Task: inverse folding
């Protein structure tokens, strides 16, 4: 198969200007259409931050597992507090959680916390973890009014009841009200490509991200994804900052690779995303990102913390693959045409079926853009049990 | 129209002045049976998404929208009569007090607007967004805010009476009785406050924040929590009488009829529980997710959770369902002839 992907970039900061030859690893691969040229327009003259991806600790991933962190599908506030403090200290080498948080945020920052409510209510960023992140950010001197918990769709935030469950003073923002609401996006920053002949070929960055926030803490969930293989740090960040992203996948084909990594590499998103805390309290191993079926949602009781989204997503991918294998489900790399269905209900209930040829290669592709390390040998994977 | 002695109690059969019909939070219980709708009488688009419930009085349906407008709709013609522009998006369900239409907005303002003309009568302000519905009782308006405070202001003029800080954000609409008010809070507690002073009488902890708006019948408060449980508490002491576990968090508010409380859970199930014992009477699947509140009328439970469904109150049997375009998670208004619905897509429907 001749699959060559090209990236044309004008303002990627220090990222690669040309991405060539992303080769998906797959079983029984099918001939997918070639990815089109992606034109990227970032903010001109934006000075990249040293805290930007892959951040202060490239390749380092702290994994914490504590079975009591989720019991009967309820997340323990006390246990996740302990896990997060321990994980932040392990990541940074600091002696206190306060000092660890201060490595990433300063009192004059406007800190965005990018949640993933898309699987709400069954699997979404846990309010318990968000409360501890907010406490950590406040502990570093950032006032509540300068903390913005956000996602693209306000109705998904509503289903998760984040407004009620998070501390007073913190802003909770849904960037758009529905699919047709484009008012919250910045026309200076976009990715442009024609994937399937769509009439709107641009995806714009949210103004909140491009103009208002100075730092972003990314809080993805741990889920498989019918188009991208998994949804983790990279997809939560990129597809949660730009609009009009569903056009990148049209059954059964998906251009989530390379688009996810490309979007994450656009300035100022790349520089502002300084920390990634993956909520693995629940792990969706099939039916993601929207499944509500408890049978496909494993209560994993895990946190993954790091500054390198590629390394974290690589660990996540292995974890989901392991779980799928244990459950008798095919790999997310499976590209056998027999695995594809156009029946949404069949996909939701049968873990051997999928709507798309998944593209987990987006993680490696993001690594090639300099966003982090996908090679297992280069990942400093620190597994610790919360004490 | 002058305010009556009990201005927001359930009135004529075609009135629905507050969230869940009236201040008893009955959800419309009464003899009026809910008709099986066979057609759309009219449909009107409000431009932006609607996250609140409509209210109805004197042939005018009042609807708030995320576009920041309060819309007054003539229900006979299905036409807008006027609209009032607020300072920000509106998530708050309006409530009617005499000729006043009261509602909050995301900028923290609470407005009183003339129900006939749409002119501003007064406004007051909290420090953060007001999603709860203002409740009028005894000449006072009570509402909660995301700033963590419960406010009481004079119904005529909006001057402050008292403010009480609770432990978290407040999205729950208070239930106001003669001496006490009851409200859920983001800190996970259900509170009772003295209605005249705002003094906290008791606060009972649940396992997570409370989005749900409580309802009271006799000496029992019923409310759902994000900790997955439905709670019944003693109105005087706050002592938990029973709690019932559902499959996921609860932001739906209970509708009460006789000894039955009906409430939805985010796991998509509708639960009917005995108020006296907490026993499950029946459970029905009403969608993938329920965040809206059921209403009860004429022995029928009506819920909007994606589609509109009616269940038999006694058995939980599905009686009818109406499929509309778009996501609809709101509280319908039930009248003798017509059901009024508002949806996330910004459409308002009259079904008959």
Result:
């Amino acid at each position: 198969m001749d699959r060559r992907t090209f990236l044309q970039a004008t303002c990627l900061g220090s990222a690669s200007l040309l991405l060539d030859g992303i080769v998906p690893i797959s079983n029984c691969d099918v001939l997918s259409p070639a990815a089109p040229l992606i034109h990227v327009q970032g903010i001109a003259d934006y000075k990249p931050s040293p805290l930007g991806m892959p951040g202060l600790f490239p390749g380092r991933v702290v994994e914490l597992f504590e079975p009591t962190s989720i019991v009967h599908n309820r997340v323990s506030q006390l246990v996740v507090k302990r896990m997060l403090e321990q994980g932040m200290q392990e990541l940074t080498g600091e002696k206190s959680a306060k000092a660890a948080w201060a490595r990433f945020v300063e009192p004059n920052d406007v800190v965005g916390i990018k949640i993933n409510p898309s699987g709400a209510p069954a699997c979404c960023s846990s309010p318990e973890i968000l409360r501890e992140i907010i406490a950590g950010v406040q502990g570093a001197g950032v006032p509540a009014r300068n903390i913005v918990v956000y996602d693209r769709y306000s109705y998904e935030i509503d289903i998760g009841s984040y407004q009620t469950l998070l501390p007073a003073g913190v802003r909770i923002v849904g960037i758009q009200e529905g699919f047709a609401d484009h008012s919250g996006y910045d026309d200076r920053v976009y990715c442009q490509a024609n994937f399937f002949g769509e009439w709107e070929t641009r995806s714009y960055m949210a103004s909140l991200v491009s103009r208002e926030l100075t730092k972003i803490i990314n809080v993805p969930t741990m889920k498989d994804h019918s188009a991208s293989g998994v949804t983790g740090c990279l997809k939560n960040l990129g597809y949660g900052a730009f609009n009009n992203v569903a056009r990148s996948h049209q059954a059964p084909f998906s251009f989530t690779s390379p688009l996810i990594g490309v979007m994450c590499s656009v300035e100022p998103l790349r520089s502002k995303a300084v920390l990634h805390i993956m909520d693995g309290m629940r792990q969706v191993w099939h039916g993601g990102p929207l499944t509500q079926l408890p049978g496909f949602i494993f209560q994993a009781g895990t946190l993954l913390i790091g500054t390198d989204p590629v390394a974290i997503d690589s660990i996540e991918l292995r974890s989901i693959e392991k779980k799928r294998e244990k459950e008798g489900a095919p790999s997310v790399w499976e590209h056998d045409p027999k695995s594809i269905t156009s029946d949404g209900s069949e996909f939701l209930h049968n873990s051997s079926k999928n709507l798309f040829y998944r593209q987990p290669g987006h993680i490696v592709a993001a690594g090639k853009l300099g966003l982090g390390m996908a090679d297992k040998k280069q990942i400093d994977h620190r597994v610790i049990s919360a004490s | 129209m002058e305010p009556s002695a009990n201005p927001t109690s359930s009135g004529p059969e075609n009135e629905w002045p507050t969230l869940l019909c009236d201040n008893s939070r009955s959800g419309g219980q009464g003899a009026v049976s809910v008709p099986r709708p066979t057609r759309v009488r009219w449909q009107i688009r409000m431009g932006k998404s609607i996250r609140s419930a409509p209210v109805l009085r004197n042939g005018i349906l009042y609807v708030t929208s995320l576009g920041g407008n309060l819309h007054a709709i003539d229900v006979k013609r299905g036409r807008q009569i006027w609209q009032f522009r607020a300072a920000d998006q509106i998530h708050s369900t309006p409530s009617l007090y005499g000729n006043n239409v009261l509602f909050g907005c995301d900028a923290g303002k609470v407005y009183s607007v003339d129900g006939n003309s749409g002119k501003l009568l007064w406004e007051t302000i909290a420090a953060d967004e007001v999603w709860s519905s203002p409740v009028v009782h005894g000449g006072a308006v009570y509402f909660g805010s995301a700033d963590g405070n419960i406010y009481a202001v004079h119904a005529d003029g909006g001057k402050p009476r008292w403010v009480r800080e609770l432990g978290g954000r407040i999205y729950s609409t208070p239930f106001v009785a003669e001496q006490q008010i009851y409200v859920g809070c983001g800190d996970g507690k259900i509170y009772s406050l003295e209605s005249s002073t705002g003094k906290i009488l008791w606060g009972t902890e649940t396992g997570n924040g409370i989005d749900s708006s409580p309802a009271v019948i006799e000496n029992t408060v019923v409310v759902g929590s994000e900790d997955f449980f439905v709670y019944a508490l003693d109105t005087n002491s706050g002592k938990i009488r029973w709690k019932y576990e559902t499959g996921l968090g609860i932001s739906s508010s209970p509708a009460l009829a006789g000894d039955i409380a009906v409430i939805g859970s985010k796991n998509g199930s509708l639960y009917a529980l005995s108020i006296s014992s907490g026993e499950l009477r029946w459970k029905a699947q009403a969608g993938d997710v329920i965040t809206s509140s059921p209403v009860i009328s004429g022995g029928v439970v009506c819920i909007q959770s994606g589609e509109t469904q009616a269940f038999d109150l006694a058995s939980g049997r599905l009686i009818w369902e109406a499929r509309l375009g778009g996501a609809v998670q709101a509280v319908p208004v039930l009248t003798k002839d017509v059901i009024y619905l508002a949806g996330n897509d910004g459409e308002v429907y009259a079904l008959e």
Summary: Chain A has a mean pLDDT of 91. Chain A touches chain B at residues 73-74, 120-122, 127, 155, 158-159, 161, 163-169, 177-178, 292 (CB under 8 Å). The longest helix of chain A spans residues 309-326.
